[in-house]
Amino acid sequence: MTIMAKALTYVELCTRLSRFVQLEPNDALYKELQDVLEELVMFYDNMDSVDLSSLLDDCGIDVPFVGLAAMDELVLFSLHKLIGSFVLTSSSFALQERLFVVLSRVLHRCKPRMIGNSPEQVQRRLSFVQSCVLYLPPPPEANDAHNESAETLTISAQPEELRLAVLLCLREVLEEREQEVEKQAVQLQVEHQHFFAYVVASLLNVAQRDRCRDAALQAIEVLKCVLLFVQDPQSLRQYLPGIVAGLWKSANAPQQASKVIVAALQALATALDLCISDEHLPGGEDGGMKQEQPRFTLEAIRQSAESNVNDMQGMEDAQDPVGVLSNDNQKWLETTAMNLDLLLSRMFAASATAIADGTSTGLPRSSWRVRCALAQLCDTVMLRCRRALRVSFFRCYDELLVLCSDAITEVAEEADTVFEKLQMSALSSEEQLRLLPEMADRFQMLLSTLVLKIATEHEATKVHLVRTLRGYVNFLGPSITPYLDASLDSIYTSLCRVVSFAALDIELVVHQLLPSPAEPNENSDNIRARVMISQFQKRLRFFNEEASVREVLEMLREIGAVLTPAGFIDCAFTLLSEANMEVREPGGAEVVLVLNEFLRAYCPSNECRKRVVHQSVDVHLVGRILEDLLVLDSWNKHNSSSNRGCSKAFVSQCALMVECIGVCAEILGAEFKLFLLYILYPLVEQLGSHSVEVERAALAALEKICFFTGYKCLEALFQDNMDYFVDALCARLEQLDAYPMTASVVEALLRHTSLASLPLVDEVASSLLRSVDLYQDSPHVDGLLRALKSLLSSIARDAQEAECKKVHTLGDDELEKSRHPRSLLSEFIREMKVLENDGIDGLEIEIEGGDKETCSVPEHSDRASVKGAMPLEYDEIQRDSPDSGEGNEEENTAASAYRTLVIDIMERCGYFLVNSDPIACCLVLSLIDEGVRFLSKHPRQLLPLVARMWPEILPRLRVENRAIVTSTVRVIATLAETAGDFVGDRFVETVWPILRSQLQLIHFDVDAKSPQLTRSMLLLSKPTIDDSHVEDIRSPSSDAEIQKRTDNELSAVSGVRKTQEVHQLLAILSCLTIVCLQSETMTKLVPEITRTCCKYLSRSAPREVVQQTSELFAALAQLNGDEVFCTVAALADWNPPTPPSARFPGYAPDAVQRFYRDHLAKLSGYAQTCRDNACVLINRIFS
């Protein structure tokens, strides 16, 4: 039988092995013993591969199986004897390693019969442990000068395989089975305590110093088995300090494997649980530490008095030795708790600082298994050892808060599990009442720590503290409200320090998507489902990353969710009022920022709102907030003339205050309509602010108000409340000294709405004009002019929209008539007929051959009217006569009113043309430019106005300020475009001499001053190329076209900064181009303009200047092409072809060059740089 054959083989090997027990060791026997051990290993491998149960079923008896168990016991006994005598004297590490390999196999087979709580079984296992420990390197503490063998046995001198085999044997001896009954604590004698102290020290020595990570891991696992084997708290407490220190050194070793670190942390948790857990302390889990709830009764008073008497009697008696012993244990426990707290602080220091700074402090946290082990260690400290390690409770709690936000799900779930145990079952009501004040104090301590480290520590460390604070608030919830409210002033001040405000980043816009309101009003059709609100990004001084800023703002919202709203609102405005009394107002922006984030916690769309139902911000609190905001000096202080140049602190604070109104609207929703009449005008006043931060905040707040109160847009909101605006504006426009921002309100209304939505705008315009008359010499001129500019722009925009609508509604006949305009002759006859018949149009006059004459006469759509030649007094007399093209008077009533208003505005502009302030003067000129464009289709009103303003405009060309000169030139160009003959007659004698003197001072040759370096010149991105252009370049058949396009391109400098000089030059060149196109009186100036402006064809000039100069030359060529051709040909060094006939006897080859030399005598310095662009003009204009 197979089982019988295996049993006989096993008996033979056992007999051969037992023979070595009685022999004296020598080299030959060592070799023979090693062979026997090799055969035993092979036998065990063979037995492990065979299913013994099937063999026993086939055999029908279990005698062989019983025999194999007996042989196992005999082999185990023989090996135990050989370890202590025969093999101990051998110097062969291979023999020792083979022996312990066989021993581990046999121990595994005999383990069911060795495990037990009887003294015999315990003593047997201890004997095996003693024999195995002899082969481990002794710890440095056990070295003895009289024992030379211990000195030679070191970790470096012993093979790793031997130590692994010894450790496996120890693990087989000490490890308990999972299905084993509850283990009883082993009562160790004094000698046993010393022995286990040596075992623990040896295992820790291997765990700390062994370079083999598997050996270190096995040593820690064996140490855990030793602790579980002893299970005597009094005995284990003697080893606890050394175990804790050794495990810490092993886990914190350089480049330690994560498996070893995890095993060390688990062994540390096991040691703490077995030594100082709550169930092992006097009184059990609840003994001694919990205080009974006081009872305020007479019986309780009597019992208290009796206990005091008994205590006094006990003090007089002799001291009890048991009491002295308990005091010693208590001192030991306190010392151990302090040391462990220090160790945990170093262990948890690996969080943010070690990773960010790259230091070696703390444990490596890259492995998620290590973080899970840390969570399990915190579980042991907080749940199992809460009484003994009370000082470390909050340290572990802080670490768990960090682990809860871990990116690995297993780590976060492990930390959450600990919190659930702590909150649901572990803490009793008495413990919660005791811990709650301590946790509140801990919260304030952490907040103070964050304030102290806010300007010095790494940002990751600060975010770590922020997450810890968030964890405290989320765990405690509303139960921490009374403690925070009691110290609200200090908490609010500390939070202001944390969120020290830097600025509003106007280069980065963030978008907030508002959800639909929960309870819309009856006008549900006017409510949009969702709306996007745009605001500037907030920048904090001590937090640079956007994720960090979000963490801080979320912390503020979560803290605000557990605070009493009335309390933090009162605290905020107290701090703001105290700040307003100071000169520089430190911290005003921070106070408002914290208030806004506190209030956001009560918005219906915020997640904190779902967790907090016991507090709310009602209409009364919002009314108190709005009332206190509007009475603060900071609301209007940044817009006053005395603080125009103040720091950004006022601007940021005002922007955040405006944002607070939007948050209040988001909280109340439709109920915010109660405050519209109170808050709408101040908001629109901030909408016209000089700073873009305040303007954007006001626009966002108004959009929120429109959304939550049921309006479609701002125009609908302003239209429904226009009567309120008109009453306030008309009253305040006459009192600008008391209300300096009134003009800004008008400007904001007109900027964000249309005139059609402002039915009472005529009253506002009339009041605005009266205010201009009253304050024309005051500092309020700038605001009034900007308001007039917005009014005029709105009028022009509405007129253009009305014209577009009229074009879409024209009939076929009118559309066909507009497509085919009359010829110049027909137009002249029609206008003469109108003048003769007092506005009554006569019949169309047909002319023979009219079609041919019409085709032969060149037409120009912008040609000036013949009425421009009539006296100006004629238009003034006929001002009230109906225009031939106006049509129905009822339809043009609004247009006539607008024209009258524009004329009144332009007449007021004459007051400020002589103003020395460049900004005001440029605003006036811009107003004139836009007004002239608006009145361009109404020459009867325009021409008299231009004639009156011309003497006042012309002196503006002689000022030294380039911006004023540029604006004046643009106005003259607009006048030339709308009243060509009027300007053309005066341009030659009055305007051109001034412009010529200015052009002579502007040069762009190689010796000219180079422009300054700007940021745009440093951009690395290149301009994109059009796709069609790329296709043309890639196409092989377009080489000739590419060459032709290159020849026709102007050579100039690209990317040059446009200085005021360049802007002035471009305006002058554009003005000359328009005047040349509109008036033929410029013909006699063509030679002079050509010679003066030809230098701007230089390739060293900016590209915009060269292009505008080429357009000017094209316009000059229409007036006198011969003169322009001579100059351009001379610049281009153009050679005409040789005459084909001998009829030109006077022609010589150098005749052209002689002509060029005479013609370019005054332009010798520009001929070389202008040649390339002159050649391009030859091809463009004269080819």
TrEMBL record:
Domain TTI1 C-terminal TPR: 876-1000
Domain of life, per lineage: Eukaryota
Signal peptide residues on this chain, from the entry's feature table: none
Stretches assigned to coiled coil: 164-191
Keyword vocabulary terms for this entry: Coiled coil
Pfam family, one: TPR_TTI1_2nd
One term under GO cellular component: cytoplasm
Keyword presence, Coiled coil: yes
Residue ranges of every copy of the TTI1 N-terminal TPR domain listed in the record: 70-406
Protein name: Uncharacterized protein
Species annotation: Peronospora belbahrii
